Amino acid sequence: MSSLSVYHVSSPEIPNKVLTHFEDIASTLAEKGVRFDRWEAAARIQPGASQEEVIAAYRTQIDKLMTERGYVTVDVISLNSDHPQKAELRAKFLDEHRHGEDEVRFFVAGRGLFTLHIDDYVYAVLCEKNDLISVPAGTPHWFDMGEHPHFVAIRLFNNPEGWVAKFTGDDIASRFPRLED
Ligand SMILES: CSCCC(=O)/C(O)=C/O
Ligand SMILES: [Fe+2]
Ligand code: NI
After folding, report:
1. What is the pLDDT of residue 161?
2. Which CDD domains does this one have (predicted)?
């Protein structure tokens, strides 16, 4: 079940609130400029499926997002716990970073934990299959796929280079909960 846990930066052990209803999650995040939507991910895709397979299965939804929002690049992260580089891939996203563009991710299988640092609050968004999240450009955040990754996410970018991140150097991510698996 998707969820949103909201913490004060000073209390990583105890969330101020935990929301599990889609409308509550979406409206709380919308107040901070974060889009949280639910799109049906009807094609059965297994974590580990190839980028080509995933893009072909979700061509309609990808085209809709690209046309509506002007995204120019798409790629896929598709991982299961057999992946030989899973520890390196997990580590890549675990530290707080920003992007110069919105972070748009459509989960078509499995789950992952996005954590956003907005002013004095931390928003941990557990995204699952069918969730579409768009984090505004410049928002400090990190992502945990867990020790045993199991997810497929379609990523859309509005620059031709794809994934470009600037790490903040803040160790805040190490104090907040990781994805339990
Ligand atoms: C869920 S997609 C992989 C993570 C990623 O692209 C990113 O930028 C995390 O912050
Ligand atoms: Fe990111
Ligand atoms: Ni699964």
Report:
1. 84
2. cupin_ARD
Q: Is 153 in the pocket of ligand 1 (CB under 6 A)?
A: yes
Q: How confident is the model at residue 93 (pLDDT cuts 50, 70, 90)?
A: very high
Q: Token pair of 8, please?
A: 């004060």
Q: Tell me the pLDDT tens digit for each residue of 108-133.
A: 999 999 999 999 999 999 999 999 99
Tell me: ipTM over 0.85. Answer: yes
Ligand nearest to the CA of 146: 1
Query: CB of 106 closer than 6 A to ligand 1?
Result: no
pLDDT at residue 13, as a whole number? 95
Q: Is the CB of 124 under 6 A from ligand 1?
A: no
Q: How far is the centre of ligand 3, averaged over its atoms, from the C-alpha of 56 (Å)? A: 19
Q: Does residue 116 line the site of ligand 1, with CB under 6 A? A: no
- Closest atom, ligand 1, to C-alpha of 99: 8
